[in-house]
Specification:
alpha+beta, 351 residues, eight-stranded antiparallel beta sheet, five-stranded parallel beta sheet, 9 helices, disordered C terminus, 20 strands, binds fe (ii) ion, single chain
Length: 351
């Protein structure tokens, strides 16, 4: 832990409106990221808040980022869960995402911030109020929309029927009761109706495959019918890898279409995977970069659905276009609406 870390975490907690009268709980597993935990506790104290740490032993069900989705080392640990619910905000350093425990804690009114990226990434992508403003402007448009269409010069043309699932924002901090966020981020997402996604997605050169952390080099054509991928075609290595990876889960629900949204973080880098050799990075640069269309396959429990397949692919599309009820939102990788675009950037107008 360094003074630089405490200083950065103090700025982050201030954005989360942590101050006198607030209680901060820091959650760790097997003492991992203890430098973050100690610095968050010190930062909370700097801001005049009460703070404590809950450290749980890793159980067979647990395992941080590598665990089975939905199973955590917090499961069944009533006193720890109750302690976390008693706080105003939980800093999650163990990765509770997609778990029942996370839902119980946030349902109680405790807000939650996930922090697992390396310090350099946190520092580069410290959120801003401007990012929140633009993500919330996008949220209002997405909530009002009935249909999303995504196209690209490579051949993508897919339509999502909206309205069945809520819209979720991520701008990297949280100051509202019960609200979850992830530092860093800068995106929003929703999901099409379970049987309401049809068309074609072409993963093109330069699009990214998470969690495999690969750029597509040989285009892959996905055929989508009633919310399921029914065909994966491509002459190169990428189609083979995708099919092999998905098939390894032996779960037909892995072919379901998952969340959909777009990135608004102008400081997140598309090129990141090519220039950073840090295996600890989980890829928030690649998921949140400005103007990407974040297409995804697999589970939908995050937004209230019933598909809890363990196979989850996040596939940021570079240079695609996205329309809400016919209105251009992203065009060729540029954000069009002025209230969503970075000030000073020239949004492209429809041709
Ligand atoms: Fe995802």
């Amino acid at each position: 832990m360094t003074s630089e870390m405490i200083s950065l975490f103090t700025k982050e907690l201030a954005l989360c409106k942590v101050g006198p009268g607030q209680t901060v709980a820091v959650l760790t597993e097997d003492g991992q990221r203890q430098d973050y935990a100690t610095a968050f506790l010190a930062a909370a104290q700097t801001l005049g808040a009460a703070a404590f740490q809950v450290n749980v032993t890793r159980t067979t069900a647990g395992g941080g980022l590598e665990r089975a989705v939905g199973a955590t080392s917090l499961a069944g640990n009533r006193p720890a869960i109750e302690a976390l619910k008693s706080a105003d905000i939980v800093i999650d350093l163990m990765f509770l995402l997609f778990s029942k425990e996370q839902i119980e804690i946030t349902d109680s009114g405790t807000r939650m911030l996930l922090v697992v990226e390396p310090f350099g990434v946190l520092s580069e992508l410290l959120p801003t109020e401007d990012l929140r403003r633009r993500v919330e402007a996008a949220e209002a448009r997405l909530e009002a929309a009935r249909e999303m269409r995504i196209t690209s010069p490579a051949g993508t043309d897919v339509v999502y029927r909206l309205g069945a699932y809520p819209v979720m924002t991520e701008y990297g901090y949280t100051d509202q009761p019960g609200r979850w966020d992830h530092w860093p981020s800068g995106m929003l997402l929703t999901q099409g109706a379970d049987d309401g996604v049809d068309g074609t997605v072409v993963l093109n050169v330069g699009d990214i495959v998470f969690p495999l952390k690969r750029y597509i080099v040989d285009p892959v054509r996905l055929t989508i019918e009633k919310g399921m991928v029914t065909g994966i075609e491509g002459r190169g290595i990428d189609a083979e890898i995708l099919i092999d990876y998905i098939e390894s889960y032996r779960d037909p629900r892995a072919y379901a279409i998952s969340h959909i949204g777009w990135g608004l973080n102008e400081r997140a880098q598309w090129r990141r995977l090519a220039v950073s050799g840090d295996p600890a990075e989980i890829g928030m640069h690649g998921r949140a970069f400005y103007g990407n269309v974040l297409f995804s396959m697999g589970p939908n429990v995050e937004l209230g659905g019933k598909n809890d397949t363990l196979c989850h692919l996040d596939l940021p599309l570079k240079g695609a276009s996205l329309y809400l009820d016919g209105e251009p939102i992203v065009e060729g990788g540029r954000i069009v609406p002025a209230d969503m675009a970075v000030a000073g950037a020239r949004p492209r107008t429809a041709a």
